[in-house]
Amino acid sequence: MTRIKHGPMPAIITCTVPARFPEGIDTRNIDAGISIKRNPIVYQLMRDMRYIEGLATGVPLIKGEMKKAGLLLPKFEIVGSFFMLTLYNRLGEHFDFNTLNERQKLGIEIIRKNGKITSKEYASITGVAAPTAIADLSKLVKEGIPNKVGRTRGAFYIIAESK
Fold first, then answer.
1. At what angle do helices 102-114 and 119-126 cross, to 10 degrees?
2. Is residue 81 part of a domain?
3. Which of 27, 28, 43, 90 is the most exposed place for a label (fewest CB within 10 A)?
4. Cα(146)–Cα(157) distance, integer angstroms
C-alpha cells in the first residue's frame, strides 16, 4: 500500500511505496535512464492504459516539472524495503508554517496565485493597518519566504527563489 503524507499547506509531500529497486538501480542512478522490466505483461498493460509513459521516463519527468515550477528537486531514498519520494515546495523542509499567523498564510497564497503582492494590497485583503502589514511581510522576508523587490512605495513581494 502506498502512503502519502504532507505538512501544512504542504511544505513537504512524501510518498512511501513498499518496493525495492531492481539489481543495478539505486538512488544515485535512478534518473540515468536505466530501466528493467520486471513484469513485461504488467508493463505493457499499464502503458496501454496510459498509467505510465514508458520505461525510465518518470524520474526525469518529475525532476523536470519541479525545476520548471521553480521548486527544489525531489529526494529519493531507500528505507529498508520501502522507496520514498519527497517533494518540496519553495520553502524546503526547514520551514514550519505553524509559526505564521493566518494573515501571513493568506499573503503567501496570494503571492503564489498572483505572482506578487504589495503591502497596501496585503493590508486591504487582511484588514490590518499599514504598519501591521509591513511587520507581517517583513517577518516573512526574514524567514526567506518572499523577496522584497524595491524599497519605496512601488515595492512588492514575490516568492523567494529555491536555493
1. 130
2. yes
3. 28
4. 6
Q: Note the pLDDT tens digit of each residue in 2-38.
A: 555 544 445 667 788 887 777 777 777 777 767 777 7
Range of the domain at 123: 100-159
Q: Where are the alpha helices (DSSP H) in 24-129?
A: 40-48, 58-68, 102-114, 119-126
Do residues 78 and 18 both lie within one domain?
Answer: yes
We report the CATH number of the domain holding residue 151 as: 1.10.10.10
How many domains, the chain? 2
In the beta sheet, which residues pair with residue 82? 18, 79
Virtual torsion, Cα 29, 32, 33, 36, nearest 10 deg: -20
Nearest Cα residue to 4 out of 80, 105, 83, 60: 83
Report how far residue 139's alpha carbon sits from residue 134's, in angstroms, rounded to the nearest whole number: 9
Q: What is the pTM of this model?
A: 0.46
Cell of 103: 494573515
